[in-house]
Design brief:
Largest sheet: 6 strands, mixed
Order of helices and strands: EHEEEEHHEEHEEHHEHHHHEEEE
Shape: globular
CATH superfamily: LigB-like
Strand content: 15-25%
Structural class: alpha/beta
Radius of gyration: 17 Å
Number of domains: 1
CATH architecture: 3-Layer(aba) Sandwich
Number of helices: 10
CATH topology: Protocatechuate 4,5-dioxygenase, Chain B
Distance between the termini: 14 Å
CATH class: Alpha Beta
Number of strands: 14
């Protein structure tokens, strides 16, 4: 079986689920450039828990975890089957306090990406949560435990944003980027390429770029899982690079 790549996607606004733009077209094209997965394990910014949880439902629900958007967005369903057996195997790999749960589904960090990549929704999908009690090193270490899944045809998909500051969004200019946002995005890119674990795990709150780019960890942490699941032997590339609304990095990262 072909070893699967690891993919991190900067997902941006939920409206990308409905919009046709260079970002969503890039997702569509990307699906044809990587091997077809046997299953997909998603690590989304939008599932935070105390303790690590793994979605084991056979037919997960589509979660609309937002408000104030058009009805068409709430009408979307992504009816991909779950992967209970792989969820149980993943629980064993992660170990520790990891538990299985059916009390979740596909949040928009997952389905807003997959409906562009795999619109047929016929690939099994399951999710792994972000434990809010763990430090950055522990998140990377869980990612390393997931490496074995790549040999079983599982695409590990992280969904968040390297730069994500909703309070400082520039609503007047869709393509704007603040200097500090670009600085941090490029700093992380260099750290990924040089595999500088410490720089990726421990941000410097004394630096404006670090502090403003990651005001909360939720959208950044999925990148650490993907980094952990990658190996030094993987090549790294960027299927999509760009910025939106001043304070969002839309960078995607592919290891294969």
């Amino acid at each position: 079986m072909t070893k699967m790549p690891v993919l991190f996607v900067g997902h941006g606004s939920p409206m990308n689920a409905l919009d046709k733009n260079p970002f969503t077209e890039g997702l569509h094209q990307l699906a044809g450039k990587i091997p077809r997965p046997q299953a997909i394990l998603a690590v989304s910014a939008h599932w935070e828990t105390t303790g690590t949880q793994i979605l084991s439902a056979a037919n997960p629900q589509t979660i609309h975890d937002f408000y104030g958007f058009p009805k068409a967005l709430f009408d979307i369903r992504y009816p991909a089957p779950g992967a209970p057996e792989l969820a149980a195997e993943t629980q064993k790999l992660v170990g520790g306090d990891a538990i299985l749960t059916e009390k979740w589904g596909y949040d928009h960090g997952t389905w807003s990406i997959l409906l562009h990549m795999y619109p047929e929704a016929n690939i099994p999908v399951y999710q792994l949560s972000l434990d809010v009690k763990k430090d950055p090193k522990a998140h990377v270490e869980i990612g390393r435990k997931l490496q074995a899944l790549r040999e079983k045809g599982v695409l590990i998909l992280g969904s968040g944003n390297i730069v994500h500051n909703l309070r400082l969004i520039n609503w007047k200019d869709q393509k704007a980027v603040y200097p500090w946002a670009k600085e941090f995005d490029l700093k992380v890119k260099a750290a990924l390429e040089n595999r500088e674990d410490y720089k990726l795990m421990y941000l410097d709150e004394n630096q404006e770029a670090d502090r403003l780019s990651v005001p909360s960890a939720d959208h950044y942490l999925p990148l650490l899982y993907c980094y952990g699941a990658s190996t030094p032997e993987d090549s790294i590339s960027y299927p999509y690079e760009g910025y939106e609304l001043g304070s969002l990095s839309m960078r995607s990262v592919l290891w294969k």
